[in-house]
Each structure stands twice: as C-alpha cells, then as structure tokens.
Amino acid sequence: ERLGFAVVGLGELALHQVLPAFGRAKRCRLAALVSGDADKARAVASQYGIGRENLYDYKAYDRLADDPAVDVVYIILPNSMHLEFTSRAAAAGKHVLCEKPMATSAADCEAMIAACEKAKKQLMIAYRCQYEPHHREAIRLARSGELGPLRLIEATNGQNQGPPGQWRHRKALAGGGSLPDVGIYCLNAARYITGEEPSEVSAQVLTDSSDPRFAEVEDRIAFQLKFPSGVLADCRSYYSAHESRRCRVMAERGWIDMDPAFSYQGLRMKVARVERGAEHVSEVRLPSPDQFAAEMDHMAERAARGERPHTPGEEGLQDQRIIEAIYRAAREGRPVPLAAAPGRDATR
Ligand code: NAD
Question: Where is this region: Disordered (predicted)?
Fold first, then answer.
C-alpha cells in the first residue's frame, strides 16, 4: 500500500524533479497539490490525474486534516516558509518531508521538531544525497578503514544564480546566500562521510554587494570544519560562476573523488588505493536511481512503520547551527568553537 503525498509549492524543484519522481517511486503516490496559484494547480493536477477535491490553496491547507488520501506533506517552498507549513501540516495530523535547508534559523528548526513531536508525526529533511548510491558507497568506504585514516575533505558546490529579484536573493526568505542553498551539501557531506560533528569552524565571505543579487546575501563563501578525529573539511559555495559540484576525501592510503557529486544525476566516482607502494585508480560504477524517488520512498517506509527517518529534523537543525557558526566566524574573522552535538542517530 503506497502512502499518499501532498506536494506544497509548485516551483522549479516540484515541477521538474519531485512530481515526475512519483512515477519512479515504489512506496508513495501523489495524492494532493497545494499552491497559491489556482490556474497552475489545475493545469498540474490534470497532468498528474489529481482531482479538484485534492487541490488546496495556502488558506485551505489546514483542511488536509480531513483528507484521508494524504499521509505525508512534502514542503517545497522558500526556506523561511518551512516552519509555518511544517507546523500546520503536523497540526493537521500529517507526517512532514521538508526541503533543505530546514529553515532560516536554529530556533525555527527547533520549533518544527517540537511541532512534529507534539503531533506524534515523523519529520524528515530532504537530504537527497544521503539516499544516493555513490554517497552511500563513499560513506561506507571512508568509514571502513580500507583507505586508512581520513585526513582531508575538499567539497565545492556552486552555480550562477541569476536573475536578480528571486527569493534566493532575499535574506528574509532564504536565510542567507549560497551557503544554506548549495554550500549545505558540502557541510552535510563532511558530516556524513566522517560520521562526526565538527568541533570548530572558520570562514571567509567574498561578495560584490554592488551586484543587485548580492545586496542582502553572500555570493562566495569558503569555510573550514575541524573534526574531533583531526579531519579538516575545506568547503566552498558560490552563486557567481559556472556550476561545479565536487567532493574529494583524502585518506592516508588513498582517496575518493566524486565529480559531479551533488547533481541530480550523472554522478561519477573514482577511488585511488595505494597497494605495495603503487597507486591504483579505479572508476566505481554504480546505478544512479532517481534521488527524489529514493528519498520519498524512504520517508513513506519509515512513516508507515512509525519510525524515525534517516535524516530527521535534528539533522537539519545541526546543519543550521553550524551555518550560524560559519557566518559568525566570517563576521568576526576568527575560528568559532562548536558545542558537542546532542544525541545523534546511531544509524548515520
Ligand atoms: P522556486 O522559486 O522555483 O519555487 C518556490 C515556490 O514557492 C513557487 O511555486 C512560489 O510560487 C512559491 N511561493 C510561495 N510563497 C512565495 C513567496 N513569498 N516568495 C516566493 N515564492 C513563493 O524555488 P525552488 O527552487 O523550487 O525551491 C523551493 C525549496 O526547495 C527551497 O527550500 C529550496 O532550498 C529547495 N530545493 C531543494 C533542491 C534539492 O536538490 N533538494 C533543489 C532546489 C530547491
């Protein structure tokens, strides 16, 4: 039995990635649409065979409580709206799958976790790469000890983000610039590859604020994360150069390279191993299933069993706490220590 999903927000990601992914999913089905644009909602609904009775606008959203076809609400709205729409979904008795970044402040993340706990509903943050085979293999290999101890992680995720005037350039809606939008993939990867939480961050922002896109949010940001085992992650994100999405993990006796690492498809992975003094580089060929179908199926499976998802609200909260420390480190021009993270999911 497939769980029914309501998709909230019919923007780029919803229309071009998430809605088509239902066709490749095995444990969920599209059951309802929520949009502020009635014409668009009707057009999309007819394309996906959704009846008028399963269309909602933002005001009618709370009436999802009376729609038994909907088990899970997938929130794909601008970042600052995630709190309100998560809280209302939980109050309507629905599980929540929410896009990254979880919210625009750690306080909002905490309120989202509390709202879902109170309603006894599951909350998952849509960290698609954690459900993707190349990243799963990188995690396995990095933590297996096969390549010796990890030393460095280099990760970059960026793209040209134009034109000006979009919500991603407004601090109140986005929470920040390239860091919470795409740099978060580097941050999250450094955490899941090491399986550790950083103890210190330092950072530098480079932004031409005369560019109308960057009046409120940062363009380029470089940040370093120090992990308790001694691993240093050196990460970058940007909004003003051609896209590049790569990740390399350097260990004592080899490396893991993913390029592209954070794209929707076409991920490639190479592994170097040093054996008897000689380096052997091999390409690791893995399937590239639809990342959105995989993450939605995971949510459906866990929600159906009443179990916590692999990337719960706490995962989004921890990234948000680190993002806030990164901004502080950049502002103050000095390293910022991080408190040890509270209890984490042992299955990570
Ligand atoms: P988008 O601008 O294309 O879509 C946003 C939708 O929200 C639009 O339909 C818009 O009409 C609606 N909306 C409602 N109120 C709005 C307001 N006040 N201002 C602007 N839009 C408003 O954005 P998107 O790229 O689809 O991103 C949506 C969410 O998905 C964000 O949280 C983003 O970080 C996330 N996202 C995740 C991935 C991923 O790979 N997981 C990729 C892209 C976006």
Answer: 334-348
